[in-house]
Amino acid sequence: MKKLLALLFCISWVTTHAQNADTAKKYTAKIDSSGILALPDTVRHLESKAASYIAPAVFVTYGLLSLKVKAIRNIDIHVYEDMMEDHPNFNYHIENYLQYAPAVMVYGLNLAGVHGKNTFIDRTILYGMSEGIMALTTFSLKKVTHRLRPDGSNRYSFPSGHTGNAFAAAEFMAQEYSEKSPWYGIAGYSFATATAILRVYNRDHWFSDIIAGAGFGILSTKAAYLIYPLFRNKLFHDKKSNKTTSLMPSFGNGTVGFAFTKQL
Q1: CA 165/CA 95 separation, integer angstroms
Q2: Rounded Cα distance, 116 and 174, in Å
């Protein structure tokens, strides 16, 4: 069990290093990031090296193979039995909160005056898209795979949603802040790794469940940062026109939202 946990930490470190290097390109933009509702004309496209996709792709592949390959499935059983022998009464569900720690840190840093890559509105939409993609993927697979959890509570074990949330948030933090310091990405991925390990220790997931969840989480955030600029920049920025576009907060009948206007 200790060897496998050490392997998970090593994999997480490699992933963190790849993601930090992926977002380490310097960029300067004339954006008034001091205002919480600042909205620049454009947002950056995902600057992603091919190497940064290797780790999450391997994670997803490993998890999917565990559904059919007996040797990989036997690793799940071995990890579970080893864990039960060492910590049979472990029951601390702090991962319910840890999974959101990287995202909370992003907004906390912004409130403290440490501005990330994107402004509040764009960042929030990006995170929402990431969570949406991740949730759609993981919950669809849970329905299809129908894998029994280690504790026998239900058949929604594969992949781990908590782990997916945690790694999506960790990649979100890496995308927003790794340009300032790689330690932000390391902190985010440390919380994500702790979340994944606790899901196994609490008998909520098999080892392959958390590996797959990590991969889906990272890829979901990458997908959001890839897709969002494609329609966001087209919607708000037109070099050939002086027409204006605005997005303003609104409140009416007890409902808070945003009002979007575009000059035609």
Answers
A1: 11
A2: 10
